[in-house]
Amino acid sequence: MGLLLLMLGQLFAESLPHAARNTVRILGGLLLYVPAAARIAVQVGQSPDGTYALVFGGVCLLGVVAGMVFQIRAYLALGTLFLTLDVAATLLDAGLRDHRIGFLVMTLTGLTLIGGRVLTTLKRQEWELLVRRVRVQLRGWD
């Protein structure tokens, strides 16, 4: 259903107002990703292998690539959001199965957050310039 809505939104993009076009893209993306993401979230700790998570991650990467190729922010944002959810759920599943992996993941996550915060504090002007450049570039996307 979500894929059909995305295709219809793309086919009738010229006749739809900008706000309606964005709404159709966001709803289509949510209908495409949410059922699979809900299944991953429910299966945490119960999945026999990681095949489904890998397939869902591949679909999310395709959404990110489609967003970049067609320069559509909704595809890029939803693909990135659900890819992050997929990775987090997979790491949570691995951490629940083996506590050493959980400890390693939690430690590396904490160190990454603290290190990223320190770097953004030390190089605030460069970071703000990068963020401004990305915003200007994304402003031209549909």
The run of helices and strands is: HHHHHH
- The parts where pLDDT drops under 50 for at least 5 residues are none
The proportion of residues in beta strands is under 5%
Number of H- or I-type helical stretches: 6
Alpha-carbon Rg, integer: 18 Å
The strand count comes to 0
**Gap between N and C termini, in Å?**
22 Å
| Mass-distribution shape | flat
- Helix/strand/pairing class, anyone? mainly alpha
Number of domains: 2
Average residue-wise pLDDT = 83
Biggest sheet record = none
Helix content range: over 70%
What report would you give on this structure?
The chain has 142 residues and is mostly helical. The protein has 2 domains: 2-97, no CATH class; 100-142, no CATH class. The chain contains 6 helices and no strands. The chain has helices at 2-11, 18-43, 51-70, 73-97, 99-122, 124-139. It starts with a helix and ends with a helix. 16% of the residues are buried.
Secondary structure layout:
Layout: H1 2-11, H2 18-43, H3 51-70, H4 73-97, H5 99-122, H6 124-139
Helix pairs in contact: 1-2, 2-3, 2-4, 3-4, 4-5
Task: Give structural attributes.
142 residues, mainly alpha, 2 domains, 0% strand, flat
What's the gist of this structure?
The chain has 142 residues and is mainly α.
